[in-house]
Write a structure and sequence with these properties.
By secondary structure, the chain is an alpha/beta fold. The longest helix is centred in the last third of the chain and has 19 residues.
C-alpha cells in the first residue's frame, strides 16, 4: 500500500510539504482526509469516499499524474567546480547547473523541482563530467573532489575550463582563464620586458603581487594565475608596471611567453637590437661571399649584445674565415684565444696569415710553451683542448677578449675534464665553430650552449623535459637566437653537383659461408651469456660488431686462427681495385677513407705494387698540412686517410673522387669526411662512393644511418636524440 512517505520520496519532498501542497490544491480537507473531488473533473470520484483503500489509491494516482505529465528534461547542463581553498591540492565541490537550478554531484535526487515543472537529471552528462575529473587526477574524498594529479592544479583548472566547466572560488566568484590574458614581450639592454593585459586592463602589477597564489583579482574580475608564470616566479621582477626577466633567464622568458602565446618573442632579430658597424677592407670584400659577410655581422651583433654564439655552418662554408675576419674588424683591443684540435694548429696559423696578416700569433702548445706566456704581446693565442686542460690553473688567471672553440664537438661530453676546463675559461665573448655540433645526443647541444652562455643554459632541465615530451620546437626556439646555421644548399648556388652512390659488393661462396659461420658463432656467444644486460654494456658487444665489420673489409684483418679457413681476397677490396685503377688511368686523383688503419696498409701495399703515387695520413701523422699541400699540388695520386684523423681541418678541393671504404653508424662522421672535398673552392662535380658488402652487417649499418637521419631532421640537420642503444646493437647483429 502506498503511504504518504512513499509519495514524499517520489516527489523528493518532506511529508509535511506534500500535505501542505495537497491542501493548497484542494485535494485534502483540513483534517487530512480527501475531499469529494478528483485530481481532474470526474476522475477518481469512487475512490474518495473510501477512507483507507481509497486514500492510498488516491495518493498513487496523484504521484503517477504529478510525476509523469509535469516532468521535463533540460538540454544544457553545465558542470561547476567550487574551489574551497588555494592550496596546491585543494578540495573542490562539483555541482551541475540545470538552467537556474543547481544540484550537488553527490545528491541522490532524481529530479529538480522548479516553480511549475520537475526536471529529470541527466546522469550520462554528469558521469562524463566526473570521468573528466578522474582523468585529470581528482579523487573522491569526504563528499568532495580533491586534486592529486601529477601536474599542477593550475594546469588541471585550465583543462577543466577548456572542456566546458565553470570554475568558482570559495566565495562563488567566477574565475577567468589565464589564456584570456594578452602577453607581449620586448627586449631591453639586459632584460625582457613582459606586459600582461585583458580587455584593456594592465595586469602586470596584479600578477606580481600574487606570485605565490593560485588566483589573482583585478578590476572586479578574478583570474587563474598563469601556470608558466608560477613556474618561473623566482626569475620575475617588477619595474615601471611591467614584469622584468633578466637576459640570463632567457629560457624562463621563452617558456613563459610561448605558453601564453606572447607577441613579439618569435621575432628573434628584434631581441638583439644593438648593432656594430663593420668596415670590410677591399681584400675582404673580394674574398668574402655574401653569406659570410652576414655571418661576420651576426657575430658582431652577438658580441655587442653580450651573448655567446655558435656558428654551425656546413663544413666547407668558411667558418674559420668568418671568425678571423670578425676578430680583425670588431675593434677588439686585448688578446683573443682560439682553442682547436691539435691537428688544426698549422691550418689556423696559415688562415690568420692569409686573412689577417697584421695579427701577431702565438702558438701555446708543446713542451716549451711555458717559455712564452706574455699573451698580452699577441693579438691571438692558438692552443689545443688537451693543453688547455693541462694548463687550466694558469689559463684561468687570464682574461681574454674573445675565445673561439673550433670543432667544438671535440669536447661534446660535458662530464669530461676537457669540457670542464673550457667551461671555466674567462672571456668577454665566446664563439663556437662546428659543422656538426650535435652528433649523437641532444645533451651535446646543451653542453655547447652552456659553454657559450653559462648563465642562460646553466641547467639541462629544459632540454631534458622537452626531449622527453618530444617538444623539439621549444628546443629549437631556445637555441635559435644563439646559433647561425647555413647549409651549402642554402647559400652556394654555384657549388658543383655532388653525386653519392652505394656500391654493393657480392661475396663469393667461400667468403659468404665463412661470414655466416662467424656470424652464427657470435650469436651463439650472446645467447649463451647468462646476463644479457651485462653483456650489452660490456666491451664484448663492440668486439663482436668489430669482428664482423673487419671481415667485410678484408678477412685478413681478423686475428690468425679465428676463421676456419684462410681467405686472401675480399669482395669489397676487389671492387675498390677495379674502380681506382680506372680512375688512375684517367689521370684522376682519388681519396680513400677507412676507419681501420690496418685496412689502409693493405690498400697502400697494393697501390705500391701498382706503382701508383700514394699519400697517407692517420692519427700519428705530424706533418698533416705539408702532406695536404703536396697532394693539392700534385697532378695525380691516391690519398689514404683514416676517417677519425681526416674528418676535420683538411681542404682537398683538387680531388673530386672519394671512396668511403667502410660505413659508420653515425652519418655525420661520413659527411665530415666527404666535405673535405665538397667545399668552397671545388670547381668540379664531386663523386662519393660507399662500399657495402651485400648480405652483411654493413647493410644493417646503412639502415641504422637512415633511422638516425630521420630523427635528425625532426629538429634540424645533424641532431640525433639518442645514442647507440642495446636495441641498435641487436638490430645490427640479427
Amino acid at each position: 500500500m502506498r503511504t504518504l512517505d512513499d509519495l514524499a520520496k517520489k516527489l523528493h519532498r518532506r511529508p509535511w510539504s506534500v500535505v501542505k501542497m495537497l491542501k493548497s490544491r484542494g485535494y485534502l480537507k483540513r483534517n487530512g482526509e480527501p475531499k469529494k473531488r478528483t485530481i481532474d473533473a470526474g476522475y477518481m470520484t469512487k475512490y474518495c469516499y473510501i477512507k483507507n483503500k481509497g486514500w492510498n489509491l488516491f495518493l498513487d494516482e496523484l504521484a503517477r499524474k504529478d510525476s509523469g505529465k509535469k516532468r521535463k528534461a533540460i538540454k544544457k547542463i553545465v558542470p561547476e567546480i567550487y574551489i574551497l581553498n588555494e592550496t596546491k591540492s585543494p578540495p573542490c565541490s562539483l555541482c551541475f547547473r540545470y538552467g537556474n537550478m543547481r544540484v550537488d554531484a553527490f545528491s541522490t535526487k532524481e529530479f529538480l523541482q522548479g516553480t511549475r515543472w520537475r526536471y529529470l537529471r541527466n546522469k550520462d552528462v554528469e558521469n562524463k563530467a566526473i570521468e573528466i575529473l578522474f582523468s585529470l587526477g581528482f579523487i573522491r574524498k569526504e563528499g568532495k573532489f580533491q586534486y592529486k594529479g601529477n601536474k599542477t592544479f593550475l594546469f588541471a583548472a585550465e583543462e577543466l575550463l577548456r572542456k566546458g566547466f565553470r570554475l568558482f572560488d570559495k566565495n562563488e566568484k567566477s574565475l577567468c582563464s589565464s589564456k584570456s590574458i594578452s602577453c607581449s614581450v620586448s627586449y631591453g639592454i639586459d632584460w625582457f620586458n613582459v606586459s600582461l593585459s585583458h580587455d584593456g586592463t594592465e595586469l602586470s602589477s596584479f600578477v606580481y603581487n600574487n606570485l605565490n597564489k593560485q588566483f589573482f583579482e583585478a578590476n572586479g574580475k578574478k583570474y587563474l594565475f598563469p601556470e608558466s608564470l608560477s613556474e618561473h616566479k623566482n626569475d620575475i621582477q617588477l619595474q615601471d608596471g611591467n614584469l622584468i626577466i633578466k637576459k640570463e633567464n632567457w629560457l624562463s622568458a621563452l617558456e613563459m611567453s610561448s605558453e601564453m602565446d606572447a607577441k613579439g618573442l618569435e621575432k628573434f632579430e628584434n631581441l638583439f637590437k644593438k648593432e656594430t658597424k663593420i668596415s670590410f677592407t677591399k681584400q675582404q670584400k673580394k674574398i668574402l661571399r655574401d653569406y659570410q659577410i652576414t655571418g661576420v655581422k651576426w657575430l658582431a651583433r652577438m658580441h655587442a649584445n653580450g651573448f655567446g654564439a655558435l656558428l654551425a655552418d656546413d663544413m666547407g662554408l668558411g667558418k674559420t674565415l668568418q671568425a678571423i675576419v670578425f676578430l680583425s674588424q670588431s675593434g677588439i683591443k686585448s688578446t683573443a684565444l682560439a682553442v682547436v684540435p691539435k691537428s688544426l694548429l698549422a691550418n689556423w696559423k696559415n688562415e690568420i696569415n692569409k686573412f689577417a696578416p697584421d695579427f701577431k700569433v702565438l702558438i701555446y702548445h708543446g713542451s716549451d710553451r711555458k717559455d712564452n706566456t706574455d699573451f698580452e704581446n699577441y693579438d691571438i693565442v692558438l692552443s689545443t683542448y688537451a693543453t688547455t686542460m693541462l694548463d687550466i690553473d694558469f689559463l684561468i688567471k687570464k682574461k681574454f677578449s674573445v675565445i673561439i672553440f673550433d670543432e667544438v664537438q671535440t669536447i661534446k661530453n660535458y662530464k669530461s675534464k676537457m669540457y670542464e676546463a673550457a667551461l671555466i675559461l674567462k672571456a668577454d665573448f665566446k664563439i663556437a665553430l662546428s659543422g656538426t655540433p650535435f652528433e649523437n645526443n641532444i645533451l651535446e647541444l646543451w653542453a655547447i650552449m652552456r659553454l657559450l652562455n653559462p648563465k642562460i643554459f646553466a641547467k639541462r632541465t629544459f632540454f631534458m623535459r622537452n626531449l622527453a615530451s618530444k617538444n623539439f620546437d621549444k628546443i629549437k626556439s631556445a637555441i635559435a637566437p644563439f646559433m647561425l646555421q647555413r647549409t651549402k644548399k642554402d647559400v652556394l648556388n654555384d657549388l658543383p653537383k655532388k653525386t653519392e652512390e652505394t656500391l654493393y659488393c657480392t661475396m663469393d661462396d667461400d667468403m659468404a659461408s665463412t661470414y655466416t659461420a662467424l656470424h652464427e658463432k657470435i650469436l651463439d656467444e650472446i645467447s649463451g651469456t647468462a646476463d644479457f644486460s651485462a653483456f650489452m654494456t660490456s666491451s664484448l658487444v663492440l668486439e663482436s660488431l668489430l669482428k664482423l665489420r673487419q671481415f667485410c673489409c678484408h678477412p685478413s684483418l681478423l686475428p690468425k686462427g679465428m676463421l676456419p679457413v684462410k681467405l686472401d681476397t675480399s669482395a669489397k677490396f676487389d671492387v675498390l681495385k677495379i674502380k681506382v685503377q680506372a680512375l688512375v688511368e684517367q689521370k684522376e686523383k682519388v681519396i680513400i677513407f677507412s676507419q681501420f688503419t690496418s685496412m689502409l696498409e693493405i690498400i697502400r701495399k697494393w697501390l705500391s705494387s701498382e706503382k701508383i703515387k700514394t699519400f697517407y695520413l692517420d692519427g700519428s701523422t705530424n706533418n698533416r698540412q705539408d702532406l695536404v699541400d703536396e697532394f693539392e699540388k700534385s697532378d695525380d695520386g691516391v690519398f689514404l686517410i683514416s676517417l677519425k684523423a681526416g674528418g676535420v681541418g683538411l681542404n682537398l678541393v683538387s680531388c673530386h673522387y672519394v671512396f668511403i671504404y667502410d660505413p659508420w653508424w653515425n652519418p655525420a662522421s661520413e659527411n665530415q669526411a666527404s666535405d673535405r672535398v665538397y667545399r668552397i673552392g671545388q670547381k668540379n662535380n664531386v663523386f662519393i662512393y660507399r662500399l657495402i658488402t651485400k648480405g652483411t652487417i654493413e647493410e644493417k649499418v646503412l639502415e641504422l644511418q637512415d633511422e638516425k637521419k630521420d630523427i635528425a631532421t625532426t629538429l634540424f640537420s645533424g641532431l640525433s636524440t639518442k645514442k647507440l642503444t642495446a636495441e641498435d646493437f641487436m638490430q645490427l647483429l640479427q
